[in-house]
TrEMBL record:
This is Cytochrome P450 monooxygenase. It comes from Meloidogyne javanica (Root-knot nematode worm). Its cofactor is heme. GO terms for molecular function: heme binding; iron ion binding; oxidoreductase activity, acting on paired donors, with incorporation or reduction of molecular oxygen, reduced flavin or flavoprotein as one donor, and incorporation of one atom of oxygen. One of its GO terms (cellular component) is cytoplasm. It comes from the Eukaryota. The keyword Acyltransferase does not apply.
Length: 378
């Protein structure tokens, strides 16, 4: 387990230590309070991104989107995306209603499979629901029966990209792009490039269809982005609202939303199945609050469900979805625990080591929501 390796290094070398990625040194911050002091309280200094620009140019034509961009481009695009999220109901009943509507369809699919005596594939059912929510927000439609084939193809492409992207040959090419011509390495490079282009072609197709008819006010994210682009083009001011950037943002939102949400939910089901005592406590709390009312739980119930909230926290802790974390780059010189670390140093907040730290979480390998509750059960 990567987090155990980082924990061993922390115990041996201290809260801050350096690892080497090929010829590239990377500083790891592996202690909770240090991560808060650095990445949270002085976030701007740690907001740079460790990018493989030549690799990205070879595979995708450049670095676009939100996740791997930085500086003014990142700030502007992130600000715009958050504003559109809010406009479309993030944190409000509007967005919640869309999610709950998809949840009802998820329950219907599962109940139908049970009636037919089929084995229930929670993984695929959850994937479809999460994908529909994201796609509806981005492109304005969900994956109903007629479009399930389209979703399965997209999911297949994303799975291949994740698997191939972490193949050892890809790390070699990211560090030394010229080695992509080597026979063995070249196979994986061309394979990843081809699959990546197929996924990007899906986004480009959706954007092209939107260009033929843009609604105002916008009904999905792509329309909102294209309207912003039109307005800035009309004024004649320089901007980053390009089609290439929109393709990158769409891809980021798809990947970031689909994989993390689906995987977290699937881990949650696995943990509850393997911990029936926790499942029973969650069920009892829901019964006590919701009772026999025929309704779905909403965010309005959150404050009344402390054990459920604690269980969700424990699911996220145990799932530990990104054990290696995204590498950042310093935008200025900093000092941590007396160590001088110069600008442009690659630095990683090693939160996975924190989540598995027995000094913070007693018996960290055990699934125990109670660790997030006080003596009063809150």
């Amino acid at each position: 387990m990567p987090e155990q390796c980082f924990l061993r290094w922390r115990r041996k070398y201290g809260n801050i230590f350096t690892i080497w990625f090929g010829e590239q040194p990377q500083v790891c911050v592996a202690e909770f309070n240090k991560i808060i002091e650095t990445f949270q309280k002085d976030g701007e200094a740690y907001s740079g991104r460790y990018k493989f620009e030549e690799f990205d140019k070879l595979v995708r034509g450049g670095t676009y989107g939100i996740i791997m961009t930085e500086g003014e481009l990142w700030r502007g695009q992130r600000r715009f995306a958050l504003q559109i999220f809010r406009d479309f109901g993030l944190g409000k009943n509007l967005m919640q209603d869309k999610i709950l509507s998809e949840l009802e369809l998820l329950f219907e699919r599962i109940e139908e499979e049970i009636k037919l005596g089929k084995d229930v594939d929670f993984g695929e059912n959850i994937d479809i629901s999460v994908g529909s929510i994201i796609n509806n927000f981005l492109f304005g439609y969900r994956f109903d029966n007629e479009r399930l084939g389209e979703f399965r193809q997209l999911k297949k492409l994303m799975d291949i990209i994740l698997d191939t992207g972490f193949h050892p040959s890809m790390f070699i090419i990211r560090l030394w792009p010229s080695l992509r011509h080597l026979p063995y390495v070249n196979y994986y490079f061309e394979y990843l490039k081809g699959v990546d282009n197929q996924l990007f072609d899906f986004h480009k197709k959706q954007i092209k269809e939107h260009l033929n008819s843009i609604n105002s006010p916008p009904t999905d994210f792509v329309e909102a982005f294209l309207l912003e682009k039109q307005q800035k083009d009309l004024i004649g001011v320089p901007h980053d609202f390009t089609i290439e950037q929109l393709v990158g943002v769409a891809n980021d939102l798809w990947f970031a939303g689909q994989e993390t949400t689906s995987t977290t939910l699937n881990w949650g089901i696995a943990f509850l199945i393997n911990n029936p005592n926790v499942q029973n406590k969650v069920h009892a709390e829901l019964d006590s609050i919701i009772g026999d009312f025929d309704r779905i739980i909403t965010t309005a119930d959150r404050s009344s469900l402390p054990y459920l909230n604690a269980t969700i926290n424990e699911i996220q802790r145990m799932a530990n979805l990104v054990p290696l974390n995204v590498a950042h780059k310093l935008t200025k010189d900093v000092k941590i625990d007396g160590y001088y670390i110069p600008k442009d140093t690659i630095i990683i907040p090693q939160i996975s080591a924190v989540l598995a730290d027995g000094e913070i979480f007693e018996n960290p390998e055990e699934f125990s929501p109670e660790r997030f509750l006080d003596k009063m059960g809150n």
